[in-house]
Amino acid sequence: MMDKIKREGGGRAQKLRAHALLATAAVVVLGSAVSVGSSAFASSKGANAVTSRAITTKGLVIGQILLSGGIYQVAQQANVIKSAATYGMTVKTCNANGTPTGQQNCVDEMISSKVAGVIMQPSSDSSATSQIKQMQAAGIPVVTWAVGPTVGVSAPFLGLDEYPQSKAAGILAAQWVEKHFHQKPTVAEVSIPGNTNCSNRMGGFLAGIRVVDKSAPLVANQNGEGATLPSENVMANIIQSGKKFNIVGACNGDSSIGVLDALRAAGRGKAVNKIPLTEYVFSVDGIPSQMALLLSKTSSLMEVLGLDPVTNASGDVAALVKYMNKQIPSSYIGNLFDTVILPNCAQGLKFLKDDYNAKVACNL
What we know:
With 364 residues, this protein is of the alpha/beta class. It has two domains: 11-160 and 309-337, Response regulator (Rossmann fold, 3-Layer(aba) Sandwich), CATH 3.40.50; 162-307 and 341-356, Response regulator (Rossmann fold), CATH 3.40.50. The chain has helices at 11-23, 71-85, 100-113, 129-137, 163-180, 196-212, 228-240, 253-265, 288-294, 309-324, 345-356; strands at 27-30, 33-36, 55-56, 61-66, 90-95, 118-120, 142-145, 157-160, 187-191, 218-223, 247-250, 271-272, 275-276, 280-285, 301-306, 333-336, 339-341. The longest helix has 18 residues, at 163-180. α2 crosses α10 (309-324), α3 packs parallel to α4 (129-137) and α5 (163-180) packs parallel to α6. The protein is 40% helix and 20% strand. A hairpin with a 2-residue loop joins β12 (271-272) and β13 (275-276).
């Protein structure tokens, strides 16, 4: 099947580039002092703008504030703990549950616990402005990642360079629909308003579709809250509205599960020998339940951008240690990269083993 689907500039090269970037962040132990290799983030903005120093990380407790309790977030949590341990650090984790109140509760917990630094994924690029300032006022270095940079504060940020990858996915989807359905690409998206991750993913996906067909309509863009049940509900509403669509984009893994549940409940979301019958579905994350659908010949999920919790967590921890070492400035902006995953047993199963230590059946 997949010899029918081709793309240029595959994600493997981008993932290898990210791995090469992070591999240089070797930890050099000098007694109990730790110095992080200065070339790890040298290619990004502001990397050499400050003078480095060695600090003692052994025995420090750092904090991580998770966006939610989603499956990817759980994997991110575990890998931050593993990465921090290589520096002799332990981690205090707080789940913000995707709400402003939860986010504030986590910030209060980090301040009262007097952690040595915090890795935070805000819910939007403006939701955490006052909260980051509170932590900084308490003398806590803060690194944000994935969603941002946060408006009105200066804090290192590691973004996910997903717009160009999502745009390439959109081109692939539109070309597939024109070739196999002989129809005009028509799009429905389930996203999260105000979330820069989702804006880049779904915005890039739509931009790619419109490279193929400039007038391709976006018939729906609903808030699935990045969660399974809300996404299932809004997708059901889109279907019941009677709007016609042949391409669906879902912002993350939990959302895609809900979207596909709604499609199947309506007699859609199906494929025969991995040829979708009614729509081509694209999503992001690569969580095991999502990958099981990508690797199923009866599901219309056709492409996933896989977030790598191992790579992302090690990059986040390395950035925080470098910031505490004053090897990067507060204005630092860097990038992490996803893995492009198409319906391919070897590729999909390797991703799951490497990043989730998980396995699903491949039925292609």
